[in-house]
Amino acid sequence: MISGKNIKEVLVTGGNGFIGSHFISQSCKKFSSINFLNVDNLSYAASPNTQNYLNQFKNYNFCNIDITNAEKLKEIFSKKHFDLVVHFAAESHVDNSISSPIEFINTNIIGTYNILQCLVDNTNNGKNTLYHHISTDEVFGSLNLNEDSFTELSNFSPSSPYSASKACSDLLVEAWGKTFGIDYLITNCSNNFGPRQYLEKLIPKTIMKIISNEKIPVYGNGTNIRDWLYVDDHIEAIFSLYEENRFINERFNIGGGHEISNIEIIQAIVKILDEEYGYKESQDLIEFVEDRKGHDFRYSINSSKIEKVTGWKANENFAEQLKITIDWYINNQDWWNN
How far apart are CA 151 and CA 188, in angstroms? Predict the structure, then answer.
């Protein structure tokens, strides 16, 4: 589908963010005949260096717009027909959602509503435009050790303002599909990691704390389990769904298949930095702190649906992907200096 025969113009929201910037850079390289317009509000988690990196692509354009600004969004949609809209833009840090929930309500719910309404108003009720909603496994809530992985049919059971706002946006998409006929695709991914992720997230935070010789805060006893997905694998999964035009009004789970506790991944990072980069006794920097409110114990994604219909499968070399990520942060310590 994204081969270029049907897709000429693509709108990406949140393209200066972590996953969005990887999607744009890989898309611009792979699909040179397609034009990509990035709508982003350049929040605290967007680096000027990322924007400079994206500006190198000739088939890339940028608009500094907040998706909560309905009028500005309407202007964009009124000027051009988009064959594909990929919605990455979101507030995503759970800690921030606990301290300031209203920002998550505005961006993740109202922002999504604004985009859906633009599709209804400007693209013949969304027809001939595929709306791809990027979501999270956190909408499904928490699992115990003996519970089966989340499937596309798992019930929503969000625990934080962040996951609740994303669950709400997922439901808005499904409702606008049924009521207004919008063609949509929803993907729920597990925890992403890789280069260019903002420093508030667990893996980059741990790396940078060690580099700076600062304490590494670990919630509770560190036994909470996450399923880790390398960002490049995530983008390849997305591409696999675009290759055919038959995945309309469906939901797909995208997981990395690498379940590991928070303390184990921190210890793995410590080991790599101490053994391969000359840091010393980084284990001593680990500091257990009071657990986060509503902290989900385990996330686990069943990706069998996307694997079956597209043949995509996450790379199994998690250790190598973690090393690549660490090496990027070692060599790009100034990425967020501005």
Answer: 10
